[in-house]
Design goal:
Mean pLDDT is about 80; it is low at about 1-20 and about 135-175. The chain is an alpha/beta fold.
Length: about 750
């Protein structure tokens, strides 16, 4: 038979090869593998290795080990697999110890007995494996939410009543939360970071459409870009139970996207996938990933969210989409004037490629606003020239997609700017469109922030704070929401809440110049003037568009530092040093010559009116009122939009015997009665209440309120000047209050090594 094991050809005839000739060695090999327990060793090794890998993941998070710990363990286990098989083949366990298998006679081998033991171990390991899998699925771990005053969402009636999904348990709500971290750019040239960020944000936006799914905001999630921080810590900072991370590799017209969903409290991977697509199909990839994540999170979502489907991502020309992402990256990550100017060119190119791409049109409108002279802008274009362009792009965005949250946001922002420029009544239209934007995309932090801002401007202070609290619960790193919230809480005298928000903001964005600048604001509000100056000087090299310099100017004004104001006063502070020096005529000339002070009614009420009144120019104040404000209602509306007082205007109208004075006082008192509960701990509010009491002749109440205002942090350099305290009588009580104010200011001046103020001059 051995001669038939080779195939031969003879005389054109084929001789058959014996099947036994090829199968015999194979049968013998498998028999030997079984005899030496190779299959049992392989199975047991695989099961035990899986259990060890899971344990490594748990230990990595529980003991705060480096993120590469479990990777090293898994790699070692993989390398050990072939080694274990080789050792099982070459060696055998005998009663006399481990020996080479070749040296063990077959009749002396105990391999069958060893095999039975291995079978028992394998069954036990498989049982343990099943227990681990079932336990992981049926008993999900839940991280304890990290909550601060700033991050605590409004409850009950303050939040506008219970949400339709309020029946969901707190544990379920904790599990139905996710943060989408910025995807890593794995492209060869490392030049696609903006594209990877765009993919991450689009996924975030798609998931945010699902009611009942709490999605951390972009600003906060993106704070961890290029940050190797432990996922458990990120989950705690963002107060989420799930994290989506991944990578993007772009080459030519192809893209590979990998994504994985991770439990934030223990680092376990719930789901992962890789997608290879043509760039023209990128939106389908977004939809696929979002749908897969939603499927994985279904057990943690309320029934209404489970039944809902994720709306498809908006389609666009891929070239326009690419340009749009790059432009938005420059605006949001750089924010300089040069970045906005470059973004305008990129967005113009995107719009040329896809004229109906609503997000590009909406952001083009926003860029035009930022390049204007608007408050908070980075440009100098006159608002009268910018407004038509802002409106054009906002209208085009809305026409292209009436249901686009970005388009509705852009239109709302236009009406807000129009309100500041022309008529504060336009704030109502801004609020209307911003409410629609939030209704389309409930998790739209920027639109929610602006909605809260304009609500606050119109007097809806409680609703504004409730909205901002909810925004910061999901996006604690959002710059605009933090600024608005911290300003609002500090203005109400709620300094602890403001400090909590600032602390969490700095934890997420430790390098944020704006966050550090807010420390100056809070220290100023708490009357820690010397500390505010030191904090500001530590940031003197920070380029923030002049905001820090203006904050420092307000602190210097409270310190009665006329020398600094003379040398360093930014735009809008002209004339204040002259008033501190008692040169009222010069102060009046400077105020009249500065158009910035009268650019808007709220700015005039904050700056122009008080300076002209202090300079004794009653006629100038009355003339401005009749030309610009015209009615008491309009004056109160403008006052609500500025961080200022109605005292100077009311005192001027009273001195002039103006017919509108009684109605102005009635409306002022009406608003004060409405705001008293919210602003009871505000020094400035108590000072304004004292001023109104003095104007009405109730000097006993006025003196009491001035003392309380000082207790709460009110500091005013003009209060120590007799010539400016014109609404108060000359008596010992007023002298004592002025002396106390002088002493409080001198305490702060002394900390800075400044000379003490000994008299009004």
């Amino acid at each position: 038979m051995r001669r038939m094991r080779r195939l031969r050809r003879s005389g054109g005839a084929w001789y058959c090869v014996s099947r036994q000739g090829t199968q015999a060695p194979m049968n013998k090999l498998f028999a030997e593998l079984r005899r030496r327990n190779i299959f049992r060793v392989a199975g047991l090794y695989a099961v035990v290795s899986w259990l060890i890998a899971q344990a490594a993941g748990v230990l990595e998070n529980a003991l705060a080990m480096p993120r590469w710990f479990d990777t090293v363990i898994v790699s070692a286990l993989l390398l050990g697999f072939p080694i274990a098989l080789v050792l099982a083949w070459a060696f055998e366990l005998t009663p006399d110890g481990v020996k080479l298998t070749a040296n063990v006679p077959e009749d002396a081998s105990i391999a069958p007995k060893t095999g039975r033991r291995l079978d028992a171990f394998l069954v036990g390991a498989l049982a343990l494996l099943i227990v681990v899998i079932v336990g992981d699925r049926l008993i999900p771990d839940r991280p304890a939410p990290v909550e601060t005053a700033a991050a605590r969402p409004p409850q009950g009636e303050e939040a506008g009543g219970p949400h339709p999904e309020a029946a969901v348990s707190k544990d379920a709500a904790a599990d139905s939360s996710i943060a989408v971290l910025p995807f890593a750019d794995m492209s060869a040239a490392k030049d696609q970071e903006y594209f990877a960020d765009g993919i991450s944000e689009e996924l975030l936006n798609v998931l945010a459409q699902v009611r009942g799914l709490q999605v951390a905001g972009r600003t906060s999630s993106f704070a961890f870009k290029n940050d190797n921080r432990d996922l458990r810590e990120i989950g705690q900072l963002l107060n989420v139970s799930h994290i989506l991370e991944g990578s993007v590799r772009k080459a030519g017209d192809k893209v590979r996207i990998t994504a994985q969903l991770v439990k934030a409290n223990d680092g376990f991977h719930l789901w992962s996938a890789t997608y290879d697509r043509q760039l023209t199909d990128i939106f389908a990839v977004q939809d696929e990933i979002a749908g897969a994540i939603l499927d994985e999170m279904t057990p943690f979502l309320p029934a209404s969210a489970v039944a809902a489907s994720v709306a498809p991502a908006k389609r666009a020309d891929i070239g326009a989409y690419d340009l749009f992402l790059l432009a938005r990256e420059k605006m949001t990550q750089d924010g300089s004037r040069a970045a906005y100017e470059q973004s305008v060119m990129l967005l113009d190119d995107a719009i040329a490629q896809d004229p109906d791409y609503a997000p590009a049109l909406a952001w083009r409108s926003y860029a035009e606003s930022m390049l204007s002279e608007a408050d908070g802008g980075v440009g100098t274009k006159p608002m009268a020239e910018a407004l038509p362009v802002i409106k054009e792009y906002a209208d085009r965005a809305l026409a292209a997609d009436p249901k686009s949250a970005e388009a509705l946001f852009a239109v709302g922002s236009y009406w807000g700017q129009r309100g500041f420029a022309d008529d504060l009544a336009y704030f109502d239209q801004a609020i209307q469109y911003l409410r629609q934007a939030v209704a389309v995309r409930p998790n739209f932090p920027q639109a929610q922030n602006d909605l809260a801002y304009f609500l606050d401007q119109t007097g809806a202070n409680s609703e504004a704070i409730a909205i901002l609290s909810a925004v910061l619960a999901h996006d604690p790193g959002l710059r605009d929401a933090n600024v608005t919230y911290i300003y609002g809480q500090s203005a109400r005298g709620n300094h602890d809440e403001a400090e909590a928000a600032l602390t969490r903001w700095l934890a997420l964005r430790p390098d944020s110049a704006d966050a550090k600048g807010m420390r100056v604001v809070l220290l100023n509000r708490r009357a820690r003037l010397a500390d505010a100056i030191r904090a500001g000087e530590a940031l003197k090299d920070v380029a923030d568009g002049g905001r820090l310099q203006r904050q420092l100017a307000w602190v210097r004004l409270r310190l009665h530092d006329k020398e600094w104001l003379d040398a360093n006063a930014p735009t809008g502070f002209a004339g204040l040093s002259a008033l501190l020096a008692g040169d009222r005529e010069r102060a009046a000339r400077l105020a009249e010559a500065d158009p910035y002070l009268r650019a808007t009614t709220y700015r005039a009420l904050q700056s122009y009116v008080p300076r002209q009144y202090a300079a004794g120019k009653i006629d100038a104040v009355v003339a401005y009122y009749e030309q610009a404000l015209k009615t008491p209602a309009a004056a109160v509306e403008a006052w609500n939009s500025c961080d200022c007082s109605l005292t100077s205007l009311a005192a001027a109208l009273k001195a002039a015997g103006h017919n509108d004075y009684p109605e102005l006082m009635r409306l002022w008192k009406e608003r004060g009665d409405k705001d008293r509960a919210a602003y009871a701990n505000s020094g400035e509010f108590n000072q304004a209440e004292a001023d109104r009491a003095a104007l009405e002749g109730d000097f006993a109440l006025a003196k009491k309120l001035y003392a309380r205002a000082m207790d709460l942090g009110w500091r005013n350099s003009f209060f120590i000047h007799d010539e400016y305290v014109t609404i108060l009588p000359q008596d010992a009580d007023i002298d004592a209050l002025q002396a106390r104010m002088r002493g409080l200011i001198n305490e702060e001046r002394e900390k800075l090594g400044m000379g003490l103020i000994k008299n009004a001059r």
